[in-house]
Task: structure prediction
Amino acid sequence: MRLPRWVFVPAAVGAAFVLLPLVAIVARVDWASFGDLITSESSRAAFVLSLQTSAASTVLCVLAGVPMAAVLARTEFRGQGVVRSLVLLPLVLPPVVGGLALLYTFGRRGLLGESLDALGVQVAFSTVAVVMAQTFVALPFLVISIEGALRTAGERYEVVAASLGARPTTVFRRITLPLVLPGLLSGAVLAFARALGEFGATITFAGSLQGVTRTLPLEIYLQRETDPDAAVALALVLVVVAVLVIGLARQSRSAL
Result:
């Protein structure tokens, strides 16, 4: 299929709009001090914490998101459209609002937080809060990816397996999951990337304590006020990590 020539003009404008800011970051980096800027104690702590919490939140997204997507794609029930809209709400909800919602739910005086606090469990402003904030904003990406894969794959193989006597759990494990594996991988990568870049919900619900809740985006924001060169260097690191993650995901999906 040949595209009309005019299509390439807005396509080029859109590509430039995305790529030029990244080029500007590269041009702004102080390469002479780059190594020192990204290896300071606070930078290393923020980077390690971001990787750890993003990985944990991705696992939680997979554990919760796969069943959620399966229910939305393979069942019908009253109010399903409303439920789907609520599940996907974090996609359009400002992250700060999401952080407030989590705070008023799990904070010391929150809906569930008071009961948890009475048991000696404090969630807000902890590393656990970082993981929860990241999971809250990243989960819809995985649900959308897997639900779309399930609907595209159809139900014919699952129906055949069920007609041959396979139990629902066996069908789900041996048929459904392998069918949506590319979508699962893609969704998990999107969830990881979204969690890695999360800022608003994290700072609202978890705060910014070095080594405990200060992730790399928060470190970049703070360094922007005190050391712009360090902020730019860390921003470049975050961009490179995101590009590598997406590139690896595309290679893995092509291999499948």
Summary: The chain has 13 helices and no strands. The chain has a mean pLDDT of 90. The chain has one domain: 33-255.
